[in-house]
Write a structure and sequence with these properties.
Strand order of the largest sheet of chain A: 7-6-8-9-10-12-13
CATH topology of the largest domain in chain A: Rossmann fold
Largest sheet of chain B: 6 strands, antiparallel
Helix content of chain A: 40-55%
CATH class of the largest domain in chain A: Alpha Beta
CATH superfamily of the largest domain in chain A: Response regulator
Largest interface: A-B, 38 and 38 residues
Strand content of chain A: 15-25%
CATH superfamily of the domain at 496-665 in chain B: Histidine kinase-like ATPase, C-terminal domain
CATH architecture of the largest domain in chain A: 3-Layer(aba) Sandwich
Distance between the termini of chain B: 77 Å
Strand order of the largest sheet of chain B: 3-2-1-6-5-4
Shape of chain B: rod-shaped
CATH architecture of the domain at 496-665 in chain B: 2-Layer Sandwich
Order of helices and strands of chain A: HEHEHEHEEHEHEHEHHEHEHEEHHE
Structural class of chain B: alpha+beta
Number of helices of chain A: 13
Number of domains of chain A: 2
Radius of gyration of chain A: 22 Å
Largest sheet of chain A: 7 strands, mixed
Oligomer: heterodimer
Strand content of chain B: 15-25%
CATH class of the domain at 496-665 in chain B: Alpha Beta
Shape of chain A: elongated
Chain lengths: ~325, ~675
């Protein structure tokens, strides 16, 4: 009986650091800046996943973690304001989405730790100095490289082998990104027999114009690059491509869920879960600059069979083999 | 009392010097011994346990390291076997579309493979399927000189060195040669980040984990992925450095495949490692030292608590035993003290059944002996005292007798001298007085013829008669004086006559008759009742008959005198003078009692009645020497005794006891008188 007590006390002692780690520290404040609007289906996925993940790590929203959530509606100017608002509340950390959102936060602070997701080429974009050692106050998770535009182009070609003309739309206000995509399109397009170009869009009108002019060309296809604008206007883009019977490939599964044809993408939930781990570590004292930026290593091919059928496209067996999710 | 007072003070100083009582000494010794034994036992136990626990912990860690290495190797083997299905001999003959399909399936099956390429037998890339880039068909890139191709052809399977994409993500090229003659090669780029799934699922206690480094110490898998991505070189970490140097020295890597080292986070850990020879990686498993040694600490705590318990029990038991031991000793002490103070009435009662009980019994026995000795001693002292008193009494008696003897002896000599000197003139007086009386008669005869007138004649006769009367008186008193002197001479001259055995009853009867008739002769009116009670067994005794007769006559005539005197007092009517004489046999002695119912003897007289010349009779009637003489005769001459019992006005009884052979022992008490002149 003594022995058991002793062992129990030892076990308790051994377990102490763990329980101490799990103990919730003083109340902290987290600012969240998402680029989408309320209606975007990824918003609840991101928010709920973050909430759950942080909850499992000992951070309960509204209890020991005060959360300020801002939705940027794809408006860069608005997001800059929102970043200032968030920082005014003196958060311990800001969680930002996308190149647009992260740029807004980066411009607003050089001291408050920032954990980003869904950023492409964080080194080229100037967010961090290196992936292994970010160095500054930002770190996070990148989902795609510019090379992915080749994957999207190939997916487009596989879905609709007749496509010889493609246009990729994105907000051109971030020149590194735009140039990166443009260069990749130019590099990989010829190999696939596609004449591809990047097209800058700022709003619904420009989107409509870009798609409409593209649809006017024969054997054309659309690539919707990952961006705040394209995300916010997903519904219009999908409706427009459906109306114009234009095959389109997207960067996010949510857009395929809404009726888009296909996407080669990452799991948003998984990105958020990983980010939650970094948020936890930073809130517990880890230095932001020491946490390496992680790139996604798992990718999903999502195809909407209904849209494909509507477009009169047949899905090859190799494409079916590739597909991780098929939406009927 | 002094000694008794001194003893406790001595005791108290001794108690100050040796303040530890027996119980405490015993308890201290007992507890000390038990503690010592427990300490030794505990130390030995700990020593052995420490070795055991350490060996166990190391063994466990070593096994875990091997298990971890196996799992990491299984990860690689899995990839190899997945690739395996694109390496069939006929694979290169299937359509490119089918090949691409197979590669796509491979990517789906093996998430860690980021890119896979098919190199034809000449080393040209025929197909490349990537997760990151567009698939390339028939790019014709030449890999014929690349290690991935040549090594795979040479060795069937080739694991390339670990490299880092964009300086962050660890990758490794795995190429597998196809089966059959003139084979192609399937080359896969494997994202080693996914070993994380394997490494993080290796649980080692609650604080331990596993990690993997390359042969150069570069970290490629760690539960904290950020460390891997941060391009961490662990070759300077002690355990890694030790493992690397051990590998450098080659061979017996197992000899030192564990280490107690400082981990990345600074704590002490027990680290073990195992190598994966195929890829030349080292898998480390480490556990915080405290956790690894927890069984040891548990056993230390157990040993210590058992020791504490043991000491506690020993203290309790020691105290109890000491108390048990001391209680009877205290009783013994109390008992001994009681005995020491002389109280032997109680016994020590101890029933412990051991040596102390035996000791108590010995004490009791001793006390009994002492008590017995006391009692015997007292009896002896009493006896001796009695003996001494008797002796003293005898001595006093002897002394008195001696004094009396001396007194009488000197008196006797004096008396004898005086009597002798007086007797001569007295003889002259008596003789001449008798002669003168006769001469008066002759004178009257002479005068008879003379013619004298009547008147003158009458006067002459008258004077002659007066003269004759006077002379008669002179003679009478002279004779009396003469008798006194005779008695005095007798007194001083004992031992007269001879001693011989005499029939006591006859002697007494003769004396009684003599006395009675003597008294009747002197006084015709005398009358008395004589009572004789002679014991026929009185027998004979060796006595001086004349002397004894004188004593009896003396006593009897005293008795007659006393009755006469009482009768003369004439008080009571019906008074009958009685004299009773009794003899009695007392064995070697004989008793004679002479009892009269006369006036008795008052106490004042009784004390002095045996003194010489003491008499109560009117002057001229007694010499005062009767009883004195009787006493001397009986006591000194015969060795007997004379006692008197009397009650004034009622009776007097003299009791004579005589030894039957008393006269032979007796000595003459008075020196023989000088010869008469």
């Amino acid at each position: 009986m003594r022995r058991r007590d002793v062992l129990a006390s030892l076990g308790g002692a051994a377990a102490w650091p763990a329980t101490g780690y799990a103990q919730t520290p003083a109340r902290r404040r987290l600012g969240i800046l998402l680029v989408y609007g309320e209606s975007h289906p990824d918003v609840p996925i991101i928010v709920d996943t973050l909430k759950d993940s942080l909850g499992r790590l000992g951070w309960t929203w509204g209890q020991n973690l005060t959360v300020d959530l801002r939705l940027g509606d794809g408006d860069a100017e608005k997001m800059r304001r929102q970043a200032s608002e968030l920082l005014a509340a003196k958060p311990d950390l800001i969680f930002s989405q996308g190149v647009v959102g992260t740029t807004a936060v980066k411009q607003a602070t050089t001291t408050t730790p920032v954990v980003f997701i869904q950023v492409q080429d964080p080194v080229g974009g100037g967010f961090v100095t290196s992936l292994a050692r970010p160095g500054g106050n930002l770190t996070g998770f990148s989902n795609f490289d510019y090379t992915f535009v080749g994957k999207w182009l190939q997916l487009l070609k596989e879905l609709s082998p007749s496509v010889t003309r493609a246009r990729a739309i994105i907000n051109p206000d971030y020149p590194t990104r735009f140039a990166g995509y443009a260069a990749e399109l130019a590099r990989t397009g010829p190999g696939l027999g596609i004449r591809a170009e990047a097209s800058g869009v700022h709003d619904a009108a420009e989107i409509e114009q870009a798609i409409t002019t593209l649809a006017a060309e024969p054997q054309a296809g659309l690539i919707v690059l990952p961006d705040a604008i394209t995300g916010v206007y997903s519904r219009q883009i999908i409706d427009l491509t459906a109306k114009l019977r234009l095959p389109a490939v997207y960067a996010y599964a949510a857009q395929v869920q809404l009726g888009g044809l296909a996407a080669y993408t990452t799991s948003v939930a998984r990105d958020v879960q990983q980010a939650a781990g970094y948020i936890d570590r930073i809130l517990r004292g880890a230095a932001v600059g020491d946490l390496p930026v992680q790139a996604s290593e798992r990718f999903l091919t999502v195809i909407n069979l209904k849209t494909a059928a509507a477009l009169g496209l047949t899905i090859t067996p190799s494409l079916l083999a590739k597909a991780d999710a098929l939406i009927e | 009392m002094m000694a008794r007072d001194a003893a406790p003070s001595q005791g108290s100083t001794a108690a100050e010097r040796f303040r530890l009582p027996l119980a405490a000494k015993f308890a201290v010794a007992f507890v000390g011994l038990v503690t010592l034994v427990l300490l030794i036992n505990g130390a030995v136990d700990l020593f052995l346990n420490y070795g055991d626990a350490k060996r166990n912990a190391i063994e466990v860690q070593r096994e875990k390291a091997h298990a971890a290495a196996e799992r990491v190797e299984a990860f690689i083997s899995e990839i190899e076997s997945q690739i395996g299905w694109t390496t069939r001999a006929e694979w290169r003959r299937i359509s490119p579309e089918q090949q691409r399909y197979d590669f796509i399936r491979l990517l789906r099956q093996a998430p860690a493979i980021t890119e896979v390429a098919y190199l034809d037998p000449s080393g040209k890339e025929q197909l490349r399927v990537s997760r990151l880039e567009p698939d390339a068909v028939g790019s014709g890139k030449d890999f014929s000189a690349a290690a991935a191709f040549t090594q795979a052809i040479a060795g069937k399977v080739w694991f390339g060195p670990v490299y880092f994409r964009r300086g962050s993500e660890p990758y490794m090229t795995v190429s597998v040669a196809h089966a059959g003659r003139d084979p192609g090669v399937t080359m896969a780029e494997v994202n080693l980040k996914l070993i994380w799934d394997v490494v993080s699922s290796i649980h080692n206690g609650s604080g331990g984990y596993a990690f993997v480094v390359t042969a150069t110490g570069r970290l490629i898998a760690h539960p904290d992925l950020s460390l891997v991505l941060r391009d961490t070189d662990l070759s300077s970490l002690p355990e890694v450095a030790a493992a690397l140097s051990a590998r450098g020295s080659a061979g017996n890597a197992d000899a030192a495949d564990y280490e107690i080292a400082t981990a990345l986070d600074g704590g002490s850990v027990l680290a073990a490692h195992a190598t994966i020879p195929r890829v030349d990686w080292i898998v480390f498993v480490q556990l915080p030292l405290g956790e690894a040694m927890a069984p040891l600490y548990a056993s230390v705590v157990q040993t210590l608590s058992l020791m504490g318990l043991g000491v506690m029990l020993a203290t309790v038991a020691g105290t109890f035993l000491a108390h048990r031991m001391v209680v009877p000793i205290r009783q013994l002490e109390d008992g001994a003290e009681r005995f020491g103070s002389g109280d032997l009435s109680e016994r020590i009662v101890i029933r412990t059944g051991d040596e102390i009980e035996t000791l108590a019994d010995r004490f009791n026995l001793m006390a009994s002996r002492v008590q017995e000795s006391y009692e015997t001693l007292e009896a002896k002292v009493e006896e001796r005292t009695r003996d001494l008193n008797t002796s003293l009494e005898d001595l006093h008696k002897a002394q008195n007798r001696l004094i009396q003897s001396e007194k009488l002896a000197s008196l006797g000599q004096l008396t004898a001298g005086i009597a002798h000197e007086i007797k001569n003139p007295l003889n002259f007086v008596n003789n001449f007085a008798s002669l003168s009386s006769e001469l008066v008669d002759e004178l009257q005869e002479v005068l008879q013829p003379a013619n004298l007138d009547a008147k003158t004649r009458a006067e002459v006769d008258e004077i002659a008669d007066l003269l004759k009367g006077n002379l008669g008186k002179v003679v009478q008193h002279g004779k009396r004086a003469d008798s006194i002197i005779k008695n005095m001479l007798l007194h001083s001259r004992s031992g007269s006559g001879e001693h011989r055995p005499v029939e006591i009853n006859a002697l007494v009867e003769e004396s009684l008759n003599l006395a009675y008739h003597g008294a009747r002769a002197a006084q015709p009116s005398f009358n008395i009742t004589l009572v004789r009670a002679y014991d026929p067994a009185a027998g004979s005794a060796d006595v001086y008959p004349q002397e004894l007769t004188r004593v009896l006559l003396n006593l009897m005539s005293n008795g007659f005198y006393a009755t006469e005197k009482r009768k003369a007092a004439g008080a009571e009517p019906g008074y009958e003078p009685t004299l009773s004489v009794t003899t009695r046999d007392l064995g070697d002695r004989v008793e004679i009692r002479v009892r009269d119912n006369g006036t008795g003897i008052p106490d004042s007289v009784k004390a002095k009645m045996f003194d010489p010349f003491f008499t109560t009779k009117p002057a001229g009637e007694g010499t005062g020497l009767g009883l004195s003489l009787s006493h001397d005769i009986l006591v000194k001459q015969h060795g007997g005794s004379i006692d008197v019992a009397t009650e004034p006005g009622h009776f007097t009884e003299f009791t004579i006891t005589l030894p039957r052979d008393g006269a032979t022992q007796a000595h003459p008490i008075i020196a023989p008188a000088k010869s008469e002149p």
